[in-house]
Give the backbone structure.
Amino acid sequence: MKEFRWQTLEYVYSEKSSDWYWTVGIVSVAIAVVAVIFGDALFGVVVAIGAFSLTMLSSRQPKTISVEVTDKGVAIDKTLYPYPALDAFSVDEDHHHGPRLLLKSKKVVMPLITVQVATDPDALRAFLVTHLKQETFDQGILHAALERIGF
C-alpha cells in the first residue's frame, strides 16, 4: 500500500495593493448606487455585502493544510474524498504556481477540487490512475480571470 502525504497552503496567496481595494470599493459602490437608482435596493445591499466579503476573504492569509492520498481516497485537511465520490483526476504540472492536483467530484455543488502538489507528480499520477480515470481539464474561464486579477 503506497501513500502520499504532504503539506501545502490551502490556496495561493497574492498580496493586494491599496489600488486593488480601491477598485473593488469604487466598482461595488457604483453598482449599488445604480441598483438603488433603478429601484432595486435589495440588489444594492447584496452587492455591498458581497464586496465587503470579497475584501475580507482576499486579505486573509492561507493556512497550511495536510494532504493524504491513500487507497481509501484523498484527504485534504480534515475532509476525506473517497474514490467512489470522485469522477476523475488530472495532475497539472504546467501551472504557473507549480504542480497541482485537480479532482473532479460527482457532487454538483463542488465540481472541481484543486490542491497544490508537493510530491513527485509522476508517482502520484501512477498511483491515482489505479483508482480513478485520468482526464485533461482546466478550471475554466472564470477561475482564470479571477487568478488574473489576483483573487
